[in-house]
Amino acid sequence: GYLQAVSWKNVHIKDGFWGARLQVNREVTLDYQYERMEKTGRIDNFRRASAKKKGKFTGSFFNDSDVYKWLEAASYSLGTHPDKKLGHKVDRLIEEISGAQENDGYLNTYFILEKEKRFTNLVHPKFVAAILTGIFVIVENLITHTKGVHITNTAMRTSDPGTISAEASPVF
C-alpha cells in the first residue's frame, strides 16, 4: 500500500521533545512574535493600506508574509488548544487584513501603498497566496475563525486558475 498523509487534526503531541516546544510556542513565542509585528510596523502596514493610519510602508516588501505565517501558527495552536486571548488576537488581525484588501480583491500592503510597483514582480505574491491557501485549510476547521475564509476565497477568486492550490504550493 501507499503512504497517506495524516491530517494535522488527527495528530496529538502532548509531551516529549515536540510537546515541550509546542507549549513554549503557545505560551511564549506567539505573544512575543505578535508584539514584534506591532513594534516593527508589520501590522501597521495593513492599517495604512486600509487608510486607518497615515504613513508609508514600513520594512521589507515581504513583511506581509511574516504576518500570515504568524496567523497560520496561531491557527494551528487554536486548533489544538483553544485560547480566548489568542483567538481575540487572531480575530483582530483578520479584521486588519480584511480591511486592507482592495475592492478588486488585491491584498499586498507593499504594492497597495506603492501602487506604481503593483504587478512588477509576481514571485512573492504567489508565495503569499500559497500561505493564505494553507491558512484556509486550517481555518476551515476552526469554526470560531471562519472570517479568515473570506481572505483566502478572495485570493483564490482573483488569481489565475491553477496558481493557488494546496497541491501545487511550495509551502505544503
Automatic annotation (TrEMBL):
**What's a Pfam family in this record?**
Beta-AFase-like_GH127_cat
Which segments constitute the Non-reducing end beta-L-arabinofuranosidase-like GH127 catalytic domain? 10-118
PANTHER family (alphabetical): DUF1680 DOMAIN PROTEIN (AFU_ORTHOLOGUE AFUA_1G08910)
Q: Any idea what this protein is called?
A: Non-reducing end beta-L-arabinofuranosidase-like GH127 catalytic domain-containing protein
Source organism lineage?
Answer: unclassified sequences, metagenomes, ecological metagenomes
